[in-house]
From TrEMBL:
It is an enzyme of class 2 (transferase). InterPro entries: ATPase_NBD, Gcp-like_dom, KAE1/TsaD, Peptidase_M22_CS, TsaD. Substrate binds at residues 135-139, 168, 181, 185, 273. GO terms for molecular function: tRNA N(6)-L-threonylcarbamoyladenine synthase activity. It comes from Gracilibacillus marinus. Gene3D superfamilies: 3.30.420.40. Residues 25-307 form the Gcp-like domain. This is tRNA N6-adenosine threonylcarbamoyltransferase. Binds 1 Fe(2+) ion per subunit. It comes from the Bacteria.
Amino acid sequence: MSEYILGIETSCDETAVAIVKGGTEIVSNVVASQIESHKRFGGVVPEIASRHHVEQITVVIEEALAKAEMTIAEMDAIAVTEGPGLVGALLVGVNAAKALAFAHQKPLIGVHHIAGHIYANRLVEEFEFPLLALVVSGGHTELIVMKEHGKFEIIGETRDDAAGEAYDKVARTLKLPYPGGPKIDELAHIGAQRIDFPRAWLEDSFDFSFSGLKSAVINTLHNASQKGIEYKHEDIAASFQASVVDVLVEKTYRAAIENNVKQVIVAGGVAANKGLRKAMETKFKEERMNVMFPPLSLCTDNAAMIASAGYIAYKQGHRSGWDLNANPGLDL
Ligand code: KG4
Ligand code: ZN
């Protein structure tokens, strides 16, 4: 129960390293964000991301070990995000993990980024199966049923944009800085739902679609400016957020009932959304069911979640070979 796993995450724009004890106890958790470098481009620039990871990775590994007052020799395994994500960014983490594991002859464990997001919740509370996870991030929107540790059944996914991607694109249209999700969330709180944006229910399916909603927001703003009407940004944000949240909450609820789950968890960057957290809590409370979110710092990309998922893989006997490679399209 007291194995120490060193986790490494570099799939997008955070260089992150963490040490987790026994799969659930964070010993250290360091995240070096590159947001400031990508902001002026309005999104993540893959080349810049890779370069920053190369510059940061050794520093962040050393910082995570220093904060834990531990050495690599004391680690039981090295876990790393092998995919999905930006290939150049993933490669930096994978190569660092391989070098560390090889030099110190430690087991190497490749982790799926989404498994990591889900296991961020296990740093807070023990899982109860069957479990339903709603994963909402910049690259993913998925409903996943887990009947046991390490096994994931995707029952619904986005057919176009991810929820976070829709937030970021709408934010860009409103000329808000990257990443737009948190900004829209803030604005939504002071705005009113004046516009009835569409909700893609995709009846009889747990799939999602957000590109129609994104286009509706863009068209509404375009038509308004042609007619000389001006909408307040906060009202656009509130109306857009209501559309996203309604669909996420309702579909998650239906999936929870249909799959008779014991626990519902929400994961990924958009799980930090205040409107979503509140609406989920209200809906599930009404139905006398529990819904769980990671603390805000564990919603967005971090390495503690990779170490937590890596611990389960380690206990289940999974080991990656020295030929482990970055896989941008890795299946869950
Ligand atoms: O999980 P994450 O850090 O990276 C991916 O794996 O994609 O998620 C980042 C996404 C971005 O799209 C960001 O705008 C969104 O999460 N996000 C939010 C909030 N905080 C982050 N979206 C809505 N509301 C928030 N409070
Ligand atoms: Zn992520």
